[in-house]
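PROTEIN DESIGN WORKSHEET
SECTION A - STRUCTURE
LENGTH: 169
TOKENS:
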């Protein structure tokens, strides 16, 4: 890694941790901070490389387990919001749209299953779903697709900006 790339990745990692702390202490708007934390990883993947994004994801994941007060926020970041921009970059490398969306939904459902069992281990009981598990999963998939679309819109907007620190310029 070049010094500029390393320092910018470090700054984005610090910003990512700040967003996760805000998601932890401001529960009513935590979804905004989850999205902002995903955007931080997405920017690094876009500016530099997927490898740099993975390094940032791993470092922020480890730091979030130590620093973030609410460990559920850290777990959600590790399983979904931090990893998804990297998976999104892999999925959008020339696959047809239906294959791309299939991979994304498969990833999300796999992470939901892991999250379910992690919560079951942590809480020592099966999480209760107010409207049933099928309706909860279906509605969360719709929200996930909206989240994916929002990340795509943000990335398209970022690509139109003149960013002088872009890694390949």
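SECTION B - SEQUENCE
RESIDUE ASSIGNMENT:
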């Amino acid at each position: 890694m070049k010094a500029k790339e390393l320092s910018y990745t470090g700054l984005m990692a610090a910003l990512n941790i700040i967003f996760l702390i805000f998601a932890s202490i401001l529960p009513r708007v935590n979804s905004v901070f989850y999205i902002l934390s995903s955007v931080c990883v997405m920017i690094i993947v876009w500016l530099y490389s997927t490898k740099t994004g993975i390094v940032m994801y791993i470092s922020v994941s480890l730091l979030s387990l130590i620093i973030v007060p609410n460990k559920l926020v850290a777990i959600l970041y590790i399983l979904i919001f931090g990893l998804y921009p990297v998976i999104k970059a892999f999925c959008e490398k020339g696959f047809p749209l239906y294959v791309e969306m299939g991979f994304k939904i498969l990833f999300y459902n796999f992470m939901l299953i892991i999250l379910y069992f992690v919560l079951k281990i942590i809480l020592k009981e099966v999480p209760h779903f107010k409207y049933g598990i099928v309706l909860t999963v279906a509605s969360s998939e719709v929200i996930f697709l909206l989240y994916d679309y929002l990340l795509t819109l943000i990335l398209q907007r970022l690509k139109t900006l003149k960013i002088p620190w872009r890694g390949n310029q």
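SECTION C - NOTES
The longest helix spans residues 133-160.
The mean pLDDT is 88.
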